[in-house]
Amino acid sequence: MKNVEKLLVHPQFLTYMALNSEAERDRIFCKHDFSHLFDVARVAYCMALERNLAIPKETMYLTALLHDIAKWKQYKTGADHAVESSTLAREILQDLTIEADEICEAIRTHRKAHLVKTPLGQILYDSDKAVRPCIVCPHIDTCKNFRNGEKPTFTY
Ligand SMILES: [Fe+2]
Ligand SMILES: [Fe+2]
Could you list the residue range(s) of the whole structural domain that residue 122 is in? Predict the structure, then answer.
């Protein structure tokens, strides 16, 4: 996956990941680090195979790796990290001369189920949720995702 290899050494991408890491240094809840991004990429790929979707593996990895690159911005300004990540991802993809529309649309909608419109967007949305090991998390009682007393379900 040549384009994934190019992304993983892209200076802007690495800068944003460093900003995420800095912003989440003391965070007790799930982080938005390389582990999370690769977890999403792998589970997205599994889901696409299970659903017989013809989404190229490289497109899925690029989408997953870029989907949270502006999480640091959300901590800083309150901006929606899905929208901001989509904007930052477009700049990087254009710099790498990779077609950006489909990927950026999936990233933009990855926080809200009702916004998702494409198969790639659905896979990103589903895999992003499925990778979190909430069922064994010691902080579930104070996690905002479970504030209504919801119980976590099976994790991939
Ligand atoms: Fe996210
Ligand atoms: Fe995520």
Answer: 2-146
